[in-house]
Structures are given as structure tokens and as C-alpha cells.
């Protein structure tokens, strides 16, 4: 049975997506997709690549995601699925690219500076 692989990254999250022809079962870190992203509305956007290419329910996905929080993990999964679908069929490229699903969001957290509370937040000034 053929298997297609895609890697997705966002913030500190890294997702490894394995697609194989099936009935649309999606497993994330050993849990069902809805159970893993319980109550997070943004997670539905992770499956956008399937909707754009009309392949919803045609592939089983086994996803391993590490690092980051729920939002970063959902976006990492979205990129991983899009990259894996490109390997399935290169004709999906225009549909995925027009929606921005093949672009890696490079925004990262700025590192904290010494003498400050966060990257740019200075301690509160006290005159007396």
C-alpha cells in the first residue's frame, strides 16, 4: 500500500503527516483528531487542504506532532497535510498555493532580553 509523507512546522511545533488511501480516519499522536483538539475551533482549519483539493474522506492520516501549543500544532498539521497531498498528485499545487497552504509561516517568538521582563517589555518605571 502506498504512503505519502509531509512535514509541517509552525512556531515550535513539528508535525509528521503520513497519508494512505482509506476512508478518512485521522489519528494525531494515537488519538482521534476530534479528541486531540477538543474544543479548539482553529483545529478545523488544519483540514483545509483536504477541502481545497476535494480529497476529504479519501485518505487515512497518521500524524505525529511535537512541541508548541494547540494553535502552532494545528498550523503545523495543516502544512504537513498540504505537502503530503502534493506528493499524492502534483496537480493539486495551484489550488493549495492560491490559498497559501504551501507557505511556511516563519514567525517565531522573539528571545527575551536581559534587564527586561519579556523581549521588549521593560520593568515599570517608578519615580520615587
Description:
- The protein has 4 helices and 5 strands.
- The longest helix has 19 residues, at 70-88.
- The mean pLDDT is 94.
- Strand 3 and strand 4 (31-32) form a beta hairpin.
- By secondary structure, the protein is α+β, with helices and mostly antiparallel strands.
- The protein has a single domain (4-98), classed as Ribosomal Protein S5, domain 2 (2-Layer Sandwich).
- It has a 5-stranded mixed beta sheet with strand order 1-2-5-3-4.
- Residues 114-128 have a biased composition (Basic residues).
Mean pLDDT: 94
Proper CATH architecture: 2-Layer Sandwich
Strand order of the largest sheet: 1-2-5-3-4
Strand content range: 15-25%
**What does the overall shape look like?**
elongated
Spatial gap, N to C terminus:
73 Å
Report the biggest beta sheet as strand number plus sense, adding barrel if it closes. Answer: 5 strands, mixed
- How helical, in percent, are the residues? 25-40%
Order of helices and strands: EEEEHHEHH
The chain-level structural class is alpha+beta
Multimeric state: single chain
Question: Which descriptors would you attach to this protein?
Answer:
128 residues; Small ribosomal subunit protein uS9; elongated; Ribosomal_uS9; five-stranded mixed β-sheet; 5 strands; Ribosomal_Su5_D2-typ_SF; alpha+beta; RNA binding; ribonucleoprotein; 4 helices
Amino acid at each position: 500500500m502506498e504512503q505519502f509523507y509531509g512535514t509541517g512546522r509552525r512556531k515550535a511545533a513539528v508535525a509528521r503527516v503520513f497519508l494512505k488511501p482509506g476512508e478518512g480516519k485521522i489519528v494525531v499522536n494515537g488519538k482521534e483528531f476530534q479528541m486531540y483538539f477538543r474544543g479548539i475551533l482553529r483545529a478545523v482549519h488544519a483540514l483545509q487542504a483536504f477541502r481545497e483539493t476535494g480529497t476529504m474522506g479519501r485518505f487515512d492520516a497518521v500524524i505525529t506532532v511535537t512541541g508548541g501549543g494547540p494553535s502552532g500544532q494545528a498550523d503545523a498539521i495543516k502544512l504537513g497535510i498540504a505537502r503530503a497531498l502534493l506528493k499524492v498528485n502534483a496537480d493539486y499545487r495551484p489550488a493549495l498555493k492560491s490559498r497559501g497552504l504551501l507557505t511556511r509561516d516563519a514567525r517565531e517568538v522573539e528571545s527575551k532580553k536581559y534587564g527586561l521582563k519579556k523581549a521588549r517589555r521593560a520593568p515599570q518605571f517608578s519615580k520615587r
